[in-house]
Amino acid sequence: MIGLIISGHLNFASGMASAVKAIAGEQENMVFIDFIESISPDELEQQMRAAIQSMSCEQVVFLTDLPGGTPCNRAMAIMMENPSVEVLAGVNLPMIVNAAFEREDTTASELLSVLREIGMTSIQDLREQLAMSSEPENEEDGLWTSNMQF
Predict the structure, then answer these.
(1) Second label for 45, Cα 20 to 30 Å away, from 81, 84, 110, 133?
(2) Where is the PTS EIIA type-4 domain (predicted)?
C-alpha cells in the first residue's frame, strides 16, 4: 500500500479529509496536513516528515493543492532526499478519493499516472455538455438519442 499525505493551504487538507471519509470511509496510512497561518514552513515540513515516519509503507505520495506553493515546495524538498517519495500538485477531490481506492498493489509511478488522468477528466464544463446533449445525435424510429453520460 502506498502512503498518502495530503497537504495544502489553510483548511484544504482537513476539508478533503472530511470529504474522503464520507466517500471512502476511514483510511489507514493517509494523513492530512493543513498549512495554517500559525505554523512556519519549517514546522510544516517537520509535520510532513513525521507523517512519513508514522506510516508502514514502502512508498509515499504527497498530494498538494498548488504547484509552487509552500506545501508543494516542502514536499518536493523531501522527495529530493528520498527516492520512495513522489509529489503531485494541483490535486482535486476526485483525484484524492481515487488515490485512496487505487493505492493497493500498484507503484507510486502507476498511481500518479492514473491520478493525472482522473484530474484531467474530472474537470468538466457542464453547460457545454448539456448543449452537446441537446443536439440530436441519432434518430431511431422517430426518437432522438444522445450519448451523454454522467
Answers:
(1) 110
(2) 1-123
- Is residue 95 within 8 Å of residue 119, measured between CB atoms? yes
The pLDDT-based confidence of 150 (bands split at 50, 70, 90) is very low
For residue 63, report the phi and psi dihedrals to the nearest 5 degrees: -120, 110
d(CA 36, CA 13): 10
Q: Which three cell numbers stand for residue 112?
A: 500518479
CB 1 within 8 A of CB 57: yes
108-144 confidence digits (pLDDT tens): 999 999 999 999 999 999 999 899 888 765 555 555 4
Instruction: Indicate the residue type of 95.
Output: M
Q: Mind spelling out the 3-state secondary structure of 102-144?
A: HCCCCCHHHHHHHHHHHHHHHCCCHHHHHHHHHCCCEEECCEE
Residue 60 bridge partners (DSSP): 3, 85
The pTM (predicted TM-score) of the whole model is 0.86
Residue 54 CA: distances (Å) to CA of 28, 32, 57, 140: 11, 13, 9, 60
Cβ contact 94:122 at 8 Å: yes
